[in-house]
Inverse folding.
């Protein structure tokens, strides 16, 4: 191997390592978010959501100003199709954020983690139902196993785990809406929050006028934590974007399970939520479904890469 090839290989390895660390940072940050929301437990979830939307837009707006990204944002807004897609993305994002914040501060962290475990399988299901994609037998088996896990908990506790389902469905629909436009994550977050920000800002002002708003009523520390919701929303997204540039999608697919695993562990060991035998059985079916799903994806990606390699050699 000549020096140039060795240098290129070392650069690629360094890029991959950096990409993995960016991915780990992003997914870990998302996984431990419950710790942050618990600091705001005395504030209604809807008000936390409104502040998160407003301060996310403010923080991302500052970054766009520094990086001169506003022209890119306005270019995307000029197309009617993009505006509709962004409206849907902002709507589903708001549902997802509210449900997650409410779940965490209402003692349902374990159920919230389940939502993000089953999310990839819901994405496949949406592809079949909406995009008319074909479902192979292994993907069908993965979804079936996860469905059994959900049904076990539904039958045992006598109620549908709606928190998990709302989180999975809203996040899947959010991803589907974003697929309709081709824009970087930072610009996307700015646009999505801009769409719903007027409603959020009106809600905050209305709460303040009625003297029931958080600003001025809670401690200075809690107000700073509220303002910081924009930072803790944008930073993981920026890390994720950097990771996605450097490593393959299949590696990101593995790393994404850091988030629900971290959340589940927080629910069990930090917040002391009850994790019963029924939970264990139900989660085991979901984990089995995810294992099938991951193995199938790895096999398909490897097969495609081998075909490309063979084509290049010919």
């Amino acid at each position: 191997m000549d020096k140039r090839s060795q240098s290129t290989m070392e650069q690629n390895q360094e890029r991959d390592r950096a990409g993995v660390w960016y991915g780990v940072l992003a997914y870990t940050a998302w996984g431990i978010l419950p710790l942050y929301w618990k600091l705001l437990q005395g504030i209604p979830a809807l008000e936390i959501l409104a502040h998160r939307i407003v301060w996310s837009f403010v923080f991302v707006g500052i970054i766009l100003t520094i990086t001169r990204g506003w022209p890119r944002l306005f270019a995307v807004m000029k197309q009617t199709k993009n505006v509709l897609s962004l409206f849907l993305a902002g709507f589903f994002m708001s549902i997802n954020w509210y449900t997650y914040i409410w779940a965490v501060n209402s003692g349902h962290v374990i159920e919230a983690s389940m939502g993000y475990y089953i999310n990839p399988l819901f994405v496949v299901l949406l592809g079949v139902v909406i995009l008319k994609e074909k479902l192979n037998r292994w993907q069908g088996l993965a979804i079936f196993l996860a469905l059994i896990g959900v049904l076990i908990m539904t039958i045992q506790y006598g109620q549908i785990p709606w928190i998990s389902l709302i989180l999975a469905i809203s996040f899947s629909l959010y991803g589907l809406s974003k697929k309709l436009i081709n824009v970087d994550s930072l610009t996307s977050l700015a646009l999505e929050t801009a769409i719903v920000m007027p409603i959020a800002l009106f809600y905050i002002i209305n709460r303040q006028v009625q003297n029931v708003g958080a600003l001025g009523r809670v401690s200075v520390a809690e107000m700073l934590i509220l303002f910081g919701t924009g930072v803790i929303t944008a930073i993981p997204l920026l890390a994720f974007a950097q990771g996605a540039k450097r490593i393959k999608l299949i590696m990101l697919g593995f790393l994404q399970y850091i988030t629900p695993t971290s959340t589940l562990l927080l629910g069990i060991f930090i917040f002391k939520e009850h994790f019963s035998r029924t939970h264990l059985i139900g989660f085991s079916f979901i984990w089995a479904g995810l294992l099938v799903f991951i193995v199938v994806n790895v096999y398909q990606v490897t097969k495609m890469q081998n075909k490309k390699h063979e084509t290049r050699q010919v």
In short: The mean pLDDT is 90.
